[in-house]
Write a structure and sequence with these properties.
It is built from six helices and four strands. The protein is mainly α.
Length: 159
């Protein structure tokens, strides 16, 4: 894509500025650059509007399904697919290299190998979210009580 855009922009610039007298080339170049910026802003606004429209529609459909709202009630199959494993660990003070790219942290999780075996054998997706504090039990309770989801705690399943 980058090669095509580079070739396209150079060609378009040459075509747009062809025939402009040398003493007016600065004005021509400025007008061209301004129009590229305006066109890019309008195009981005239009694409963002379309993306927001479809994202809101899908979010409403998903949240309605999960909360028992306007969407269809979760089926047994859907409940199985959205089952969560809520675990608890502790962040450590281990240093992260200065040149590390991205977001990182080191955590200690008791019986991690047992937990990973359980996750792998039972079809859980491997997504992780972490927050400081001890919230595993309340989060699991909220998922089960309010969203009627199967939220397993490692101490219940890996014991």
């Amino acid at each position: 894509m980058s090669i095509g855009m580079g070739l396209t922009f150079v060609s378009m610039t040459l075509v747009a500025l062809h025939g402009i007298p040398t003493e007016e080339s600065g004005i021509g170049s400025g007008v061209l650059n301004t129009m590229q910026q305006v066109g890019g802003a309008i195009g981005l606004a239009a694409l963002s509007t379309v993306a927001v429209h479809f994202t809101r529609g899908k979010a409403a459909e998903i949240s309605g399904s999960l909360s028992g709202g306007s969407g269809p009630a979760p089926t047994g199959d859907m409940k199985q697919r959205i089952a969560d494993l809520v675990g608890q660990g502790a962040f450590t003070e281990d240093p992260i290299p200065e040149d590390y790219f991205g977001c990182a942290g080191v955590a200690q999780i008791d019986r991690l190998q047992d937990l990973l075996l359980y996750v792998g054998k039972n079809g859980y997706r491997h997504h992780v979210s972490a927050t400081p504090g001890r919230y595993a039990a309340p989060v699991a309770e909220a998922l089960e009580y309010y969203l009627n989801m199967n939220a397993a705690l490692p101490q219940r399943v890996c014991g």
